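A quick aside before the break. I want you to see a complete sequence-to-structure record at least once, exactly as it would be stored in a machine-readable document. Don't worry about memorizing anything.
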Amino acid sequence: MEEVYSVYLSKAMRYCASSEQCVYTVSKKLKEWGVGDSEADYILGELVVNGFISEERYASSFARGKFRMLRWGKVKIAAHLRQNRVAEVNIKLALKEISDDEYGQVLHQLVLKKLDSLPKGDRLQNRKKLMAYLTSKGFETNLIYEEINSLDI
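That is the input. The structure line, written in tokens, reads:
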């Protein structure tokens, strides 16, 4: 039995070392590998104790990556972290790492870029399309309205 633990534990360690993971994703991966619940609990405990899994580190890494690379807003980032069963306290800490200035700049850049792709003319239609696009990117409705109104669109 100990041999089974060590094989899957080392496999899980390699998995966690390749990229930041959370307990939920590693748990799903262990199930895919056919590891039983009690063995999975033991392995997850070992991974957490030895620093291979950190929900706080995972949330921060996820938030930074999705914001900087994919230009996701805080709403979408938080929703995806919740899907991965990350604790609210870790989600809040991760979102605080995104500076308000940088967040506003990204929103502004996205508005301008999307506006360039829209046909000139129908102001109300363009506002609707901007709202839909930016909402799907995960930005807060009140910030979107402020940005659109500040540009007089």
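Two observations worth writing down. The chain has three domains: 2-53, 56-96, 100-150. The chain has a mean pLDDT of 94. We'll return to this after the break.
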